[in-house]
Amino acid sequence: MKILLIEDDALLLHGVQKALVQQQYCCDVAQSIKEARRYVLEDYDLIILDLGLPDGDGLTLLKQWRQQGSAQPVLILTARDSLDDRVKGLDLGADDYLIKPFALAELLARIRALMRRRFEKAENVLQFGALRLDMNQNQVWLQEQELTLTRMEYAILRRLMLHAGKTVQRERLQQDLYDWNDEIGSNTLEVYIHHLRRKLGADSIKTVRGEGYRLEAKSE
Question: Which residues bind DNA (predicted)?
Fold first, then answer.
């Protein structure tokens, strides 16, 4: 499991990194926002974020990540202990907030809890190429950009992603539309497939004549 630790206090940084490595975590470190931005594009299981960084506020970095569609768990580790800071951090998308000074045992316990939640959620997240669909939140991202889909478009895409790379029968997709109890015309499915192609890319969904449709991977 891979963790990014962002902390400007060198002594604390290396102490926490050593403890994480001893727990069999792979841990990269950054001491500034500039360094963190170079790392954060990688696929980390958890980010530990200090707020008082030398080149800016960690909350600004957190806000940018969430606006870009990043769903990586973030644990704020900071000396800021005011209620306002804690509320702001959590509202901006942090998953946990631990105040310095802290007990190492508590930090490790919080990390384990966040990891458990991450992998429980992962079971309901579909990934195919650069496309990601969260069945818990009914959200879709393409190359980390969140897409706005209608409920019908979402229903079709969800079915295609559940069978990504395989042909989904036309009748199965039509049934997903009927499940909304809306009036479905003879060409309704084709209309929504057309809309999805406009949002995902013209070659994203292939028509398999006489059978149905197949989702094609879009490279990162």
Answer: 123-217
